[in-house]
Structures are given as structure tokens and as C-alpha cells.
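User: Can you predict the 3D structure of Site-specific integrase? Sequence below.
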Amino acid sequence: MAAKRKRIPRYSKVQINGHEYYKTDIEDADGKRVILYGKTREEVYDKEMAALEQIDNATFRRKSPTVAEYCEKWLLMQSVHIRATTLIDYTSKVRRHIIKELGEKRMADVTLDDIQVALVPVSKKSASVYKSVVILYKSIFRAAKESHVIDTNPTIYLEAKGGGVPQEERQALTDEQVERLLDAIRGLPPYVFVMIGLYAGLRREEILALQWDSVYLDTDAPYLTVRRAWHTEHNRPVILTELKTKAAERNIPLPDRLAECLKEAKKKSTSDYVIANQDGEPLSYTQFKRLWQYIVTRTAKPRMARKLVDGKYVKYMLYPKLGEKARNNGHVVYSLDFDVTPHMLRHTYITNLIHASVDPKTVQYLAGHESSKITMDIYAKVKYNKPEQLAGVLSGAFAEWDGGEYEAAQ
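Assistant: Sure. Here are the predicted C-alpha cells for Site-specific integrase:
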């Protein structure tokens, strides 16, 4: 806050309706003259100090930057010491969830209530997104307080706990679902993407950044190496060579089925990228959504659709039935009665590694997990997710308590 202005008090006496008062004058935040009255010097002095404090507060708030201005400055400061991928994530969330909601307000005017109201739309997203946005709010306003941009930090009592929609437990595709999915899209644009996800376990951003110079098909043991990541800015693809974590850089051996798929794809490719658009460039975000739509349209699941009526698109509910052909496209058959997401492909890969008794450290490496806790949490849920498997483990663990040995211990 600005320091109180000091001056030599100038008090004079005036007569008002037969009564004697002391008076003084000050300038307000707009430069206008304000007269203060009091029955004693002390009363006028107290009024003067209170008025000056209000004026200083108003001046300070007026000079305070807007939330949008300070957020952009904060992002610029972060760019010096965080990874490019992290900066992209921060920028997207700050602009979408902070600047969009509070951008025009002055930093010094923002209250906890303002922030909590701004977080209402975020609370409808996943718990992880909600938590990360709250952390960004706290980081930005803490930095503003430390830099004396604001006098008080409105986020000190802001909590991320319990906010957002709890994430559903990730499910892996069964072997039968994998085959049905591949049969449904064989020869279609998403086929190679799906194969890489299922049999190499790459993240979406790793698959879409994969180039042929990172795929080694002519060795005795074919493999690919992960060293780039795909992101988008304003719907345009950005390929980064700096990955989110060091653990993301890894070499993945290729099962025969995937190696053969990639050999066929490479023969037809005219691009440096394994997954490319018609111009040989990496996909934009819109182009990826269009790619994935080949899978969505083959799913027998009620959903909102659009049709052209009198030159305008009208929304309506579509209720596909398994085995039927789409009314407006005879090439599309509703052959999938289960949901598929890009991350489900990766989770299926990791699950299959665990069921194949691959040790946790190898699973951690192949999955590109930075923390062993992430791997072990998945491992624990997958390895013994069937009662009969757990029962077998428990029987072995407590075998020494069977029969006579148990009685002897008693």
C-alpha cells in the first residue's frame, strides 16, 4: 500500500449556526478539495487520517494492474524456469479459467468470493483440473503479494480439496474388445494411431509427434524411441523436443503385430510423420478430433448428432443399434458397444504388461512414468483385480497357519 502523505496540519476555526468548529481540507484521489470539520483538533485530525487512508487505498487500487495484465506478466516470468510443455499447460488454464473469468478486475480488488464464483465452472471438470487451477490462483496471487502488487492475498484460505468431478477408474479394453475395435477401423485413418497406442503404450501427444526417424524397423529387434511431444496452440500443431519429464524419453520394443503394421504404413507414407494430414504435416487439434470421430461414429451409443434441414444444421438425439448401418452413410456400421478413449489404449498396454508378469520397474520404464507410485498404484489395482487371484495369494501367504501348525501356535 502507498505510504500515508505527510504534511503540516492546517486547522482553522469557523462559526456554524452559532457553534465553533475546527476545519481543514485535503485533496481526494481525483484531486478535488474536501473540507473536514470537528469540534476539537483531535477529532479533525482523526477524520483527516481516516480520509487520507481511504484516498491512499483508492489510489493504490487504481494503480493496481488488471488480473489479465498481471497473469500475462506472471506467465512470462514462469517461462524462464519451467519446461515448454508445462508453460503451454499453464497458459491454457490461466487464460481459460482465470483471465476469462476475472481478467478485467484489478488485482487489488479481487476477493475470495470473486475467486470462488470464478471456480464454479471449473468445479464441473475433473478433480485434477480443478486442483491445478486452484494451485495457479494461489501461485499468482502469492507472487503478487510478495511483489507488493497487492496488499492482501485473497487465496490464503482457498482449498483445492474436494473440488471437481472425481475421475472414474480407468478401464482397460479386453482382448475381445481390442479385436472388435481393430476390425471396425481396419484400413481407416485412425488404425495406425490405435495400433501404436495398444502395442507401444504411447501417450496421445507422443503418437502424434512420432516421426519415422524414431522408428527402427530394420533391426533384429524393431523398436521406436520417444523423443518428441505434440501440442497445439490456437489449433495449430507444435512439436516439442523437450518432453514433460525425463522418464518420457524411452525406447519401446515393437511386438511383431505392430512392427508389421508400421512397415506397411511406411511404404505408403510420404511424410516425416507416422500420423500426418494430407499435406504431410502433424495434425491440428481439430484434425485429431476428426480422426477419432471414425471410432465414435461406429459406437452404438446414444449421442447428440446434427443434420441439415433447410440449409441449417439442426441438433437431434441419435440412438444407434449394434449391427445397424448408419442411415446417412452405408459404409458405417455400429459395431462397438463400448466406449474408447485415446488413454484407454495406453492403459490397455500397461494392463497387458502387468498381466504378462512384467516386473514393476520395467513397466514404469516402458510407460514413461516419472514416479514409481503411479506405476505401483496401477499395478496393485490390475494385478489382483479378481477375487480368485487375490484368494490364491492369501492362501499361499497363510499356508503356515493351516492345520496342526495353527493349533501348535495356539
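Residues 1-6, 405-410 have pLDDT under 50 and may be disordered. The domain at 67-146 is CATH 1.10.150.130 (DNA polymerase; domain 1).
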